[in-house]
Specification:
By secondary structure, the chain is an alpha+beta fold. The protein is about 15% helix and about 40% strand. The strands form 2 sheets. Strands 2-9-8-4-6 form a 5-stranded mixed β-sheet, with no helix packed on it. Strands 1-3-7-5 form a 4-stranded antiparallel β-sheet, with no helix packed on it. A hairpin with a 4-residue loop joins strand 8 and strand 9. It is rod-shaped and about 105 Å long.
Length: about 140
């Protein structure tokens, strides 16, 4: 009889330990994490293919995401590898090549002003706070 009681107690405690293991493992499920990282696409309105010296071209851009996380920040930088010109956001001071600047909105306009009579080639990189990055290339031929 004593052995039967010991076996029942052992089975009862074993069952409790197995049940506790199942409960604790189910609490570690990561399905309830809040998603914050949403990849984005950059949409660019058509721009002219030719530009004169001292002429300014407007570049309209928008960032599109499948969903929005309010804490996401976007930055922009550019690098010009042919020609000479300046790129700026609205009336802000012109961007310096390869410096990062905060984008305050997901829809914005950039203005590129030619400062030479040669063709112009530059790239714009837009990055979010989760290190997702997109590159957009621009090329303008000279009209003179």
């Amino acid at each position: 009889m004593k052995n039967a009681t010991k076996i029942l107690n052992l089975l009862k405690y074993s069952f409790i330990l197995v049940l506790m293991g199942i409960v604790f493992n189910s609490c570690q499920d990561n399905d309830w994490e809040i998603k914050q990282n949403f990849p984005f696409e950059v949409k660019v309105m058509p721009v002219p293919s030719k530009i004169k010296e001292n002429e300014t071209v407007e570049i309209r851009m928008s960032l599109e995401t499948a969903a929005t996380f309010s804490e996401t920040k976007y930055t922009i930088r550019y690098f010009q590898y042919e020609g000479s010109g300046k790129l700026q956001h609205y009336d802000d001071i012109p961007y310096l090549p390869n410096d990062e600047y905060l984008l305050p909105q997901k829809q914005f306009r950039l203005y590129y002003t030619s400062e030479s009579q040669e063709s112009h080639k530059f790239s714009i990189w837009i990055k979010d706070s989760f290190s997702n990055e997109k590159r957009i290339d621009f090329e303008f031929d000279n009209t003179q």
